[in-house]
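Troubleshooting: if your tokenizer reports a length mismatch, compare your output against this known-good record of 329 residues.
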Amino acid sequence: MGLIATLLNAGVFLLVAPLATGLLSRSKARLQLRRGPSLLQQYRDLKNLWAKRPPDLAVPSLVFVIAPYVALFCYALAGALIPVVFINAAGSVGSVWPGLPGGDLLLLIYLLGLATFAMGLGGMDSGAPFGQMGSSRSMFIHVMVEPGLILSLAALALYWNTTDPASIVIQTQYLGLGGILTHPALLLVGFSLVILALAEAGRLPFDNPSTHLELTMSEHAVGIEYAGRQWAAVKLAEMLKMLLLLTLLIDLFVPGFVMPLQTPGLAVLTVVAYLIKLCIAMLLLAGWESLQGQLRLRAAIRPASLATGLALSSIALTFISHIFPGGGR
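Known-good structure output:
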């Protein structure tokens, strides 16, 4: 059952990613009094791009060619390691695949870092100035963001005494939304992860995914020299990264309807509940981005530092609760 739950999680994650991006684009267009693209437009774009062979360039090396596929693999694997709609091993902490260790927050951090590193190398290896400029900007933002992300996940691990995402989701659901609101340490981690998710996914105010000006691009200028199926891999990797971060936030701070795989009817209800929570998250993100402008590059230091400070405060409160029971809650 654990293997089936993991495969279903991965399948839902891969299928929903373009739909979530399409919903976000259409919601933003509606808020700006535009018609916007169809919800299924992202699937059509990926299909058309994947059918096109990328051009043979003389300057780039093998690094440029394989970087999008490495990033895509990392995000797809990371999505399979976290409970999207089902908890593996009937809700117990165990292996995701027989003979292999289960999902782990440390592995999640390494996968996110490896994907970012691969795309950074791919942009720098493009031989074009805008790709190298985008990689430099992207690496600058990630250097500011990664310490906060590591500390936020460390705060969660310390609070729940485990690095297993399934175990954390189970305990969060047992605590409930009302319980989360009464735990300052969890609230601080939540605010920190919201800021970091926007930065990691390249959303406003850190980067504007809809801009077409190379001089204002950061995260999305890394793949500006790709075409064909390589560009399709870059786009799908970005979709998976955004959905991964949103799913992580939903799992941790909007508990409910993430459960062991049992009856088919309950499985369908679980998927529907996940889609409803994801739609609400996309609508909130669309409203947020409709009111935001892009920050200057160096101005991104302030929100990244704030997220790191919130994570450190959560760790401090967790230590206080361990030393003085009830003091951090």
